[in-house]
Amino acid sequence: MHELAIAENIVDTVCTRAAGRPVRRVILRIGALTAVLPDTMRFCFELAATGTAAHGAALDLDLRPAVVFCRVCRSERRLPDLIPLCPCGSADVTVTTGRELDIVAMEVA
């Protein structure tokens, strides 16, 4: 469950940025290829935030699909699963979205 380590890092970051003010809301952008499970992330965030300035903060997740650009068929395609292969069968792809794991915004009191 790598989500706990990620959640602890996020809580540390937002609490540092909040400079002692209560954190009310955190927005994360999470790509499908990060293998972060949304429900597990919410649970771990709540656990990591306990006793911190982020205690009770809402966690909003902006989930991004995995998208690749195929150099063979020259098209951008959404991946149906986590294997970076173009539906045309080519493995000559560049991932354009799906690897994000970013704190997009936070709201403080």
TrEMBL record:
GO BP terms in the entry: protein maturation
Keywords per UniProt: Metal-binding, Nickel, Zinc
Binding site for Ni(2+): 2
Tagged with keyword Metal-binding: yes
Gene3D superfamilies with a match to the protein in the record: 3.30.2320.80
Residue sites binding Zn(2+) per the record: 70, 73, 86, 88
Zinc as UniProt keyword: yes
Gene Ontology molecular function, alphabetical: nickel cation binding; zinc ion binding
Alphabetical list of HAMAP family matching this protein: HypA_HybF
Family: Belongs to the HypA/HybF family.
Function: Involved in the maturation of [NiFe] hydrogenases. Required for nickel insertion into the metal center of the hydrogenase.
Name of the protein: Hydrogenase maturation factor HypA
Recorded name of the encoding gene: hypA
